[in-house]
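User
Here is a favour to ask of a fellow structure person. I am asking you to supply a protein in sequence and C-alpha cell form. Please set it down just below, with no commentary around it:

Assistant
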Amino acid sequence: MTTAVAAGSAQARRDELAAFLRSRRERISPEQAGVPRTARRRTPGLRREEVAFLAAVGVTWYTWLEQGRAINVSPGVLDAVVRALQMDPTERAHAFALAGTVDPHAETACSPVTETTLRTMRKLAPYPATVKNARYDILAANQAYADVFGDPQELAPEHRNALWLMATSERWRTQFVERDAMLPVIVAKFRQAMAEHVAEPAWQARLDGLLAASEEFRALWELHDVAPMAPHVKRYLHPDPEIGLLRLEHRHLWLSPDSGGHRLVAYVPVDDESERRLEKLAARGGALAG
C-alpha cells in the first residue's frame, strides 16, 4: 500500500467515525443524558459541548473528532465518549473498529449463551458437549460432559477453562491418555487465537494466571509455537473402570458472529465401543464419574 493510499484509507475511517459519532449524538435527548433542556435548542439531541462535558474531554478536541481531523484517540478517551453517547455493545464495537484501537472493556461482560444453543448442547447427550469461547473458557456444558470430564460447576469460575485444566488439573493429567502431547498443541492454539486479542484485559489476565500457575505452561509459551483449530481424537480413561477407555473426536460448531466467538464443541465417539460406553454412563446418570 502506498503512502498516499494509506493516508486516504486512514482519513476515510476518521470521516466515518466522525459521521457515526454525530449520528449517535443527535439521537440522544438531553433528558436521556441527564442534561437540563434549555428553552431554545436548535440542535437535535445533544450539543458537542454537552458530550464533551459528559465524557470529561475538551470541547475543541471533541469538535475535531467529529470533524474527522487527524488527532490522537486513545482507548480510554474513546471509552468515555461512547459511554457519554450511551452506545450499545454493537455500536461500541463499531466505534472502536473505526478508530483502529482496542476496546479496553470489550469483554468485561461475556456474551451470554443463547437458550437455543443450550438446547442444542443438551440434546447432543449422551455425547459430551460444551460451549467455549476463543480463550477456552467453559461457558456451559451438558450432563454427559460433566460425567466424562468433571463438572465445571464444581470449579471456581476462574478455573472453568480447558487450557487451565489441561495445565493444572491432576484429574486431567492422569485421565487424558495423551495429555503431555495435547498440552503443547492447545498452548499453540491459544497463542494463535490471542494474536487478535493481545491488548484485551481478559486475555492478558488469563495468560498471566497460566504463567503464574504452571511452570510447564511457561516453558511452552516461550517456544512461540502456533497451531490452527482442527478436529482431533482424544483418548480418555474414565475413572469408573466399568466405563474405561473412551475415544472421542472433537467436532466444532461455530456460532453466529454476534455470539462473541463462542463455539459448540461435541465429543463424538469414533468407534462402537466408545458409543456403548457413553450410553452406559448416561443410563447410570454418571453416578461414578468423579
Observations:
- The CA atoms of residues 205 and 211 lie 10 Å apart.
- Strands lie at 129-132, 138-141, 233-237, 245-254, 263-269.
